[in-house]
Task: inverse folding
């Protein structure tokens, strides 16, 4: 596979400005603003029915927004289909078609020359740990294998922009890991990757930036590091050797501590740090004052942020009654 | 940079890639290979071989028949008939014996109506006729017939030889149980005709003369066209040829269009459509699918058409289908196919399964049945007002024009052909355009099928 050449165009790979889409009475996407820089790996998060797939379909020009501006790779996605790879949420293959023939067909549609296409497909099948299925019919493969075949269909033509809608759903941990590694490789080559998921652990592991939408609205758009910092609980967890109660007075006397509570495990004390104090300073003082088995700054998971923000934003969205697939 | 750096706009190569897949995956199925290729070939082989099978199947007729009649005149006539019989390839001239023999032998050439019992016999016939005498034992003769020693026992009631025979008296013909149907048919016809000959002979009338007098002359109809030409009338061909062409066109167009409907629904229900639409535009997908299926229908048309033309060549009747009619037929077919295909593709894109498709396809099917209903009236008068008006009514126009151009004795005015091509051509383009509008929205829709009004709204949506 050839390495990507740095794209000199300054315009982001994906731009959505004030994009709106309604299906009957349901407003699937409301005034969505979004930018995906070239070469970035961005995750689009949100609960079921939040409008992720609708947003992605609009990016792919499969459906048109009712309002707003939408640019992909400097223009309309329709004009750049050969430079975009897409894995839709709804997996679909020609059931009776052979795997190799199907991938060659997709490659041809994406403008790949016939010469060398078979070798390219076989190479990808090897790479993604699907050897020996070139001549198998799609219907003979397991669901996970079919998903990997479709993934190859999305990246076979080495696109500049790769859009993956829930790429890891339904995959076992082994296959998910293979796909994650491949996505990371593609990102390292400089390809822009925009993926939707509601599996926070994978988003946290993969994405440089996350965009959270709920009920068609963007409620968070920040780098993964920023999210962790912004939603950090400002807490230090310590497991004293003498027990929580014995250490409580010493811990409460540290400057900048608002309160100390016992964690659910009964062995750990959680010190809540005020907003003017650096948790690292608190950690150093506590370590000197109380002999302990373990001490660390409490981390927030993307999962916690997701639940908190979605709950604050009014809970899960409703599913459209009828609309695009 | 991506591996593909060509322009991603509307690309003919993509359309051809889709068309090629559509063609291969329809044609390379057992059902298609049997139905569209092997079946017409088999049909042609059977039609070609059948006459040989039938003629070879005939067994020689050799043996004796016993005739029981009141005065021996029928037995004599039968005897003369068989004696005068020669296998057609040997019968250069009629045999000459008596007047009856002349008549009966002439009948071998089919010159005379009524006495043609031996005209279609191509096998060896060596029959001895024995007249039943008063000493013969009827029961013994019946036993001999039953055992196959005798070919037949023919009993002619005396009343049948009267000048005014009753209508309720019949000749009795007894044959062995395993006697071939062709042989018994031959005996029955010879007996009937010999009875007539004997009856006429009794009146002293010359049979040949009498038959000549009552023979109905044939009427050869020729239509005098506006150009002053005489066009020979052939009633059977006048209806069958246009009907055959139209049916061929109808079947080929609908088989492929139906396939288009099915594959579109399959692509939608298997969710592969979204993968395809990420690589191609709806219009390219639709164009590729319609084009691919048009190749399928042309292949089908070729196999059936070739079988038909080979059949006509075999019957030395190629001249009844002028070359111009065949050229025009191709145009009418393409117009008809693209119209039907556009309708089917639009419906296929809008529904999720075949059951839902039925309700939307039904109105179109009713319209498309009209040419079948109009076959006889239009073939009867291909230049009449009904034929002329319906030629300009899409989507039935191309079917009507096929009926007219292949069946009309009077040439269809060129302006009508031109106008029909223009009207139906414009309608085809319009229908394909509307179908593409419906298709691009329909293929991504799920849920309950749209109403016809919703389809119209989709067609108007920008």
Result:
């Amino acid at each position: 596979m050839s390495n990507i050449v740095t794209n000199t165009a300054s315009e982001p790979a994906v731009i959505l400005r004030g994009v709106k889409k309604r299906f009957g009475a349901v407003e699937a996407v409301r005034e969505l603003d979004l930018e995906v820089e070239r070469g970035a790996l961005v995750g689009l998060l949100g609960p079921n029915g939040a409008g992720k797939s609708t947003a992605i379909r609009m990016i792919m020009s499969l459906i048109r927004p009712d309002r707003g501006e939408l640019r992909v790779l400097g223009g309309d996605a329709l004009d750049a289909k050969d430079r975009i790879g897409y894995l839709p949420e709804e997996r679909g293959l020609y059931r009776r078609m052979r795997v190799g023939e199907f991938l060659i067909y997709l490659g041809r549609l994406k403008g790949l020359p016939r010469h060398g296409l078979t070798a390219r497909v076989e190479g990808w099948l090897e790479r993604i740990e699907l050897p020996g299925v070139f001549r198998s019919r799609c219907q003979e493969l397991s669901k996970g294998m079919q998903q990997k075949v479709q993934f190859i269909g999305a990246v076979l033509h080495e696109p500049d922009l790769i859009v993956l809608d829930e790429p890891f759903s339904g995959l076992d941990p082994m296959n998910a890991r293979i796909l994650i590694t491949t996505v990371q490789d593609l990102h390292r080559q400089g390809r822009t990757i925009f993926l939707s998921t509601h599996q926070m652990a994978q988003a946290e592991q993969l994405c440089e930036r996350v965009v959270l939408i709920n009920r068609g609205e963007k409620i968070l758009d920040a780098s993964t590091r920023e999210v962790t910092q912004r939603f950090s609980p400002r807490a230090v967890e310590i497991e004293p050797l003498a027990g929580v109660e014995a250490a409580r007075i010493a811990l409460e006397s540290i400057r900048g501590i608002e309160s100390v509570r016992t964690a659910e495990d009964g062995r750990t004390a959680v010190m809540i740090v005020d907003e003017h104090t650096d948790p690292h300073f608190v950690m150093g003082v506590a370590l000197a004052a109380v002999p302990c088995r373990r001490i660390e700054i409490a981390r927030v998971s993307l999962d916690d942020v997701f639940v908190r923000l979605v709950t604050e934003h009014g809970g899960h969205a409703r599913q459209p009654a009828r609309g695009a697939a | 940079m991506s591996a593909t750096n060509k322009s991603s706009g509307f690309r003919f190569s993509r359309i051809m890639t889709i068309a090629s897949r559509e063609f291969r995956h329809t044609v390379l199925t057992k059902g298609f290979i049997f139905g569209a290729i092997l079946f017409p070939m088999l049909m042609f082989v059977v039609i070609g071989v059948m006459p040989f099978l039938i003629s070879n199947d005939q067994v020689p007729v050799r043996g004796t028949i016993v005739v029981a009649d009141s005065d021996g005149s029928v037995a004599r006539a039968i005897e003369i008939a068989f004696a005068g019989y020669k296998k057609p390839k040997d019968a250069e001239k009629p045999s000459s014996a008596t007047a009856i023999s002349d008549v009966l032998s002439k009948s071998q050439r089919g010159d005379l109506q009524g006495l043609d019992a031996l005209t279609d016999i191509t096998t060896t016939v060596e029959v001895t006729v024995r007249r039943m005498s008063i000493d013969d034992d009827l029961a013994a003769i019946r036993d001999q017939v039953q055992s196959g020693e005798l070919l037949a026992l023919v009993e002619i009631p005396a009343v049948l030889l009267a000048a005014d025979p009753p209508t309720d008296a019949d000749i009795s013909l007894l044959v062995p149980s395993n006697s071939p149907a062709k042989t018994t048919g031959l005996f029955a016809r010879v007996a009937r005709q010999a009875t007539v000959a004997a009856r006429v002979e009794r009146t002293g009338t010359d049979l040949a003369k009498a038959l000549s007098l009552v023979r109905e002359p044939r009427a050869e109809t020729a239509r005098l066209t506006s150009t002053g030409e005489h066009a020979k009338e052939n009633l059977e061909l006048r209806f069958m040829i246009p009907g055959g062409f139209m049916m061929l066109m109808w079947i080929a167009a609908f088989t492929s269009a139906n396939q288009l409907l099915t594959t579109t629904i399959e692509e939608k229900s298997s969710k592969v459509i979204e993968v395809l639409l990420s690589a191609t535009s709806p219009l390219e997908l639709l164009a590729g699918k319609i084009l691919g299926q048009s190749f399928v229908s042309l292949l089908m048309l070729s196999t059936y058409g070739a079988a038909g033309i080979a059949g006509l060549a075999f019957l030395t009747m190629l001249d009844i289908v002028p070359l111009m009619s065949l050229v025009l037929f191709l145009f009418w077919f393409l117009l008809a196919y693209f119209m039907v295909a556009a309708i089917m593709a639009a419906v296929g894109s809008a529904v999720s399964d075949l059951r839902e498709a039925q309700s939307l396809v039904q109105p179109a099917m009713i319209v498309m049945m009209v040419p079948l209903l109009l076959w006889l009236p239009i073939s009867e008068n291909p230049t009449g007002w009904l034929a002329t008006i319906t030629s300009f009514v899409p989507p039935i126009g191309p079917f009507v024009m096929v009926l007219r151009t292949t069946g009309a004795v009077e040439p269809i005015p060129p302006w009508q052909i031109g106008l029909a091509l223009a009207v139906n051509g414009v309608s085809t383009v319009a229908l394909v355009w509307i179908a593409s509008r419906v298709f691009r929205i329909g293929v991504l829709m799920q849920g309950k099928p749209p109403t016809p009004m919703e389809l119209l709204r989709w067609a108007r949506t920008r």
In short: The mean pLDDT of chain B is 81. Chain B touches chain A at residues 1-9, 11, 13-14, 17-18, 21, 25, 267, 270-281, 444-448 (CB under 8 Å). The first helix of chain B runs from residue 12 to 27.
